[in-house]
TrEMBL record:
Its EC number is 2.7.-.-. Pfam families: IPK. Belongs to the inositol phosphokinase (IPK) family. This is Kinase. Keywords: Kinase, Transferase. SUPFAM superfamilies: SAICAR synthase-like (SSF56104). One of its GO terms (molecular function) is inositol hexakisphosphate kinase activity. GO terms for cellular component: cytoplasm; nucleus.
Length: 394
């Protein structure tokens, strides 16, 4: 048996709702994603301040992943939950229980699941999960050619953002050239914060006025400083890194990537924020207040975190593109969601690979920073201001 076979191995698939970042995010199961482990990020999750927990994905442990090649040379990534676990995660009965999942009973070795490879990845993307047809069938994440839409119009370039696939391909290329098949790599397991939405609308915002970590080389530092100066990172403390917003009129997601976000002026940033809350027919004004309240709550938490610097981390604003029609019929108060209002938006911080703080295990001698992260606070304040103006109809 190779690593991971005969145990509850899980075939990892690209996470289709990845709108930004350059690390490949993979789907572990319906409520869990995984990403390559970076010790600085692990250190952050392990010592996460209690007040911040409602604003980050839940950390679920560590998993070992290896590359597998089939007879046709297709590459897949297989997670072996029970192998190579550091003691901290391995000894946690909750984590162990968590791994006893539906994968164990499937056909041995191959798991009867779709395989991913460079060539197949685009094709299988459409039919990998029949459960949520819209995403695979209607989204038409085209990577190579831009097909015409139903009305025969050329869609806007990048209109269907293949970002997650692009990251996944690069990741497979990188590891297949670097590692042999049985080499185990550690991945972090994190809560999939969009799993509860039917049509997740996601805005990925790179927060703060500085993006490079303390450990960045001079060359990398210069590159990041230039990107900040040439984008809204300098003027607003925030820039758009990716977006997908469901258009009710066409049944497609409108997508933007980081290259689009980098070119925006402050006014363009405002317009794009407005577009993010627009479903093709109207502005979802009812989302403004819940988003603003959540951002204000986050702001008060960040102001209290001394020594933390969230360099290069992102803030996600998420809501469901599917409006819950039942709410219009007052006699049906959201039957599916047990009294929680499904139109409510969520705000989550992600990506802590360059986050530094006093007492960080991965970085025992960090450049000590005093007080809270002013660049992050500046970005949050501006974001709140812009959304408040939108809600006042400015």
């Amino acid at each position: 048996l190779g690593p991971g076979e005969g145990r509850a191995a899980v075939l990892l698939q690209p996470f289709v709702h990845q709108v930004g970042g350059h690390t490949s995010m993979l789907t572990y199961d319906e409520h869990t994603i995984c990403k390559p482990l970076v010790s600085q990020e692990l250190s952050f999750y392990e010592s996460l301040p209690l007040a911040m927990r409602q604003f980050t994905p839940q950390y679920k442990g560590i998993v070992s992943v290896h590359l597998k090649k089939d007879s046709l040379g297709n590459l897949t990534l297989i997670a072996s939950p029970s192998l190579g676990q550091p003691d901290s995660a391995g000894g946690d009965p909750a984590v162990a229980l968590w791994h006893k999942r539906k994968w164990t009973g499937s056909a041995s070795g191959e798991h009867g699941l779709v395989k991913w490879s460079h060539t197949q990845v685009t094709k299988t993307f459409k039919d990998s999960c029949p459960g949520k047809k819209l995403l695979r069938a209607d989204l038409q994440y085209h990577t190579d050619s831009l097909l015409e839409d139903a009305n025969g119009k050329q869609p806007e370039r990048k209109s269907y953002n293949p970002w997650g696939l692009h990251c996944h391909r690069q990741h497979l290329n990188r590891i297949s050239s670097k590692h042999n098949e049985n080499k185990l790599q550690q991945f972090l397991l994190l809560e999939n914060v969009v799993s509860k939405y039917s049509y997740p609308c996601i805005l990925d915002l790179k927060m703060g006025t500085r993006q490079h970590g303390d450990d960045a080389s001079e060359e990398k530092k210069a590159r990041h400083i230039k990107k900040c100066e040439q984008s809204t990172s300098a003027s607003l403390g925030v820039r758009i890194c990716g977006m997908q917003v469901y258009q009710a009129d066409t049944g497609h997601f409108l997508c933007k990537d980081k290259y689009y976000g980098r070119k925006l002026s402050p006014e363009g940033f405002r317009q794009t924020l407005r577009q993010f809350l627009c479903n093709g027919n109207q502005l979802r004004t009812e989302l403004l207040e819940p988003i603003i309240l959540r951002l204000k709550a986050l702001l008060s938490v960040i102001r209290k975190q001394s020594s933390y610097r969230f360099y290069s981390s992102s803030l996600l604003i998420i809501y469901d593109g599917q409006e819950h029609k039942e709410s219009a019929d007052h006699h049906l108060p959201f039957p599916k969601t047990h009294g929680t209002n499904p139109s409510r938006a969520d705000v989550r911080m992600i990506d802590f690979a360059h986050t530094t703080f006093k007492g960080s295990k991965s970085n025992p001698n960090p450049t000590l920073h005093d007080g809270p992260d002013q660049g992050y606070i500046f970005g949050l304040e501006n974001l709140i201001k812009i959304l408040q103006n939108l809600s006042e109809g400015k």
